[in-house]
Design goal:
This protein is α/β, with parallel strands linked by helices and 364 residues long. The protein has two domains: 176 residues, no CATH class; 134 residues, Rossmann fold, CATH 3.40.50.300. The strands form two sheets. A five-stranded parallel β-sheet has the order 2-1-3-4-5, with helices on one face. It has a two-stranded antiparallel ribbon with strand order 6-7. α5 links the parallel β3 and β4. α10 packs across α11. It is globular, with a radius of gyration of 25 Å. 36% of the residues are buried.
Length: 364
């Protein structure tokens, strides 16, 4: 258990966060509906329930419908946050009457504004595509996946469900354990990118004389705040019901590891020509490793060993360098000021001059 003086910075950080809003959003279960044959909907519901800590989770009911759909069923489906259509086998599409009714049902679903996920068995994709007739929209995704293909389910199908709920991903993972791995990875990656972007912005500012100290202090506050919020959200995602005072002490030691990465970044910035890029990469990798350690703790109840945490950091640093280079390049391009010079009086000619960014270091 961490000492109270180790937790005090976290409590101060939490005073600036709207905890009630975060909890309310994550505790509101998205409305999902399944459309398909009984054996398919039963199998898919099992996939949603089988995930980290799923055995400790109360089953969340999902309504199911059969194709073709009646007018009243179509009207009801329009009100769901996500409709998941488990398309029929190719044999069931051969009848002209069935094909026409099915095509009409799918066309009606495609016309509705709510997100739609179409799940097709790869062996039957051509027959189903013929029924769809190429109709699609921006909120429609198709996954070619047999419901017995565990690897494709893990890598493509369940992540597709999460992607179609962009504002409700954590809530979906909390309600359906099968979605927790994809939702957790999405949260960790997005937080890592946010911290990388912040580190890049302040890193460029630190190169301007007179701005180094204030931005260095802001670094600690903002990066820590983002990591602590990420840890709390991961706890809620994994089914925790406690307040921050009850959840955060469980992972305080893991979250504190993030300070190590920021210290490494500061030491490197002063000595290397590419300090800003490296600092940004370290911010990304440190946040990513911290998030993975917190997620591992909630899944297993155990903290990662220092060696494992270091390996996570080193692996993330390689990807973080790519993220950092792109991020810093974008920021530098945006910060290059443009000066317009007018010549003449009747028809002024304008020249745009690119001025170099202040303090920009040249790579060696």
């Amino acid at each position: 258990m961490p000492r109270m003086n180790e937790l005090s910075p976290m409590w101060k950080t939490f005073s600036e966060i709207d905890i009630l809003r975060i909890r309310d959003e994550i505790e509101q279960t998205p409305r999902l509906a399944l459309v398909g044959a009984d054996d398919k909907t039963t199998r898919f519901l099992a996939l949603l329930q089988q995930g980290p800590l799923g055995a400790e989770h109360m089953v969340t009911a999902i309504p199911s419908y059969r194709l073709p759909l009646q007018a009243g069923e179509l009207a009801a489906l329009a009100g769901y946050d996500l409709r998941i259509v488990l398309l029929e086998d190719a044999q069931q599409l051969r009848s002209d009457s069935t094909s026409t009714e099915l095509s009409a049902s799918l066309a009606a679903l495609l016309a509705q504004p709510a997100p739609l996920l179409l799940v097709q068995n790869p062996a039957q994709a051509a027959a189903v595509d013929a029924v769809l007739g190429g109709r699609s929209s921006g909120q429609v995704q198709t996954v070619h996946c047999a419901l017995e293909d565990d690897e494709t389910i893990r890598k493509e199908l369940l992540p597709a469900v999460v992607r179609l709920l962009p504002e409700r991903q954590l809530a979906a993972g909390r309600a359906f354990p099968g979605l927790r791995p994809a939702a957790a990875q999405g949260l960790i990656t997005s937080t890592s990118r946010v911290n990388a972007g912040y580190a890049a912005g302040t890193g460029l500012a630190e190169m301007i004389p007179g701005l180094g100290i204030p931005f260095a202090v802001a670094d600690v506050v903002i990066l820590t705040k983002n990591q602590v919020v990420m840890a709390y959200k991961l706890g809620l995602l994994m089914g925790e019901n406690g307040t921050p005072a009850e959840i955060i002490p469980k992972v305080a030691g893991v979250v504190g590891a993030g300070f190590l990465w920021r210290q490494v970044a500061r030491e490197l910035v002063g000595f290397l020509p590419l300090g800003v890029v490296l600092k940004t990469a370290v911010a990304y990798a440190g946040t990513y490793a911290t998030g993975q350690a917190v997620y591992h703790y909630f899944v297993t109840g155990e903290k990662l060993r220092q060696k494992e945490l270091r390996r996570l950091f080193d692996d993330a640093l390689e990807h973080g360098k790519e993220v950092a280079a792109h991020t810093v390049q974008q920021l530098r391009a945006k910060r290059q000021p443009t000066v317009e010079i007018e010549t003449g009086h009747d028809k002024p000619a304008r020249k745009k001059l690119k001025l170099p960014a202040l303090g920009k270091r040249q790579p060696v």
